[in-house]
C-alpha cells in the first residue's frame, strides 16, 4: 500500500460540535497521522497522512462527520508525502 497525505477543507457546521476531536479519533483508529484545525472562516482544515486505503476511509467519514455536525462541502488535495507524528487537534 502506498503512503499519501491529503489536506481537506471541510465546510458547513463543523466548529463547536466536536468535529476536530472526532476526526482525530477516527484517524487514530486507522493508524493515520495529521491534524484538524479550525479556520477563521468557520471551516475545518484536516491534514491526514498514512496508507492510501485508510486515508480514503477517513475522507469518506469526513463527508458525514460526527452526529452534531453538518458537512456541506469538502475540498481535498493530495500533498507530497511527509512524516507527521500523532494526530493533533489544533
UniProtKB/TrEMBL annotation:
UniProt-annotated catalytic positions: 20, 38
Domain Acylphosphatase-like residue range list: 5-90
GO MF, any single term: acylphosphatase activity
InterPro entries registered for this protein in UniProt: Acylphosphatase, Acylphosphatase-like_dom, Acylphosphatase-like_dom_sf, Acylphosphatase_CS
Origin superkingdom: Bacteria
Catalyzed reactions: an acyl phosphate + H2O = a carboxylate + phosphate + H(+)
Record keywords, A-Z: Hydrolase
PROSITE patterns: ACYLPHOSPHATASE_1, ACYLPHOSPHATASE_2, ACYLPHOSPHATASE_3
EC number(s) reported in the record: 3.6.1.7
Enzyme class, spelled out: hydrolase
Keyword Secreted: no
Presence of keyword ATP-binding: no
Pfam family membership, one: Acylphosphatase
Family: Belongs to the acylphosphatase family.
PANTHER family: ACYLPHOSPHATASE (PTHR47268:SF4)
Name listed for the protein in its UniProt record: Acylphosphatase
Species of provenance: Photobacterium lipolyticum
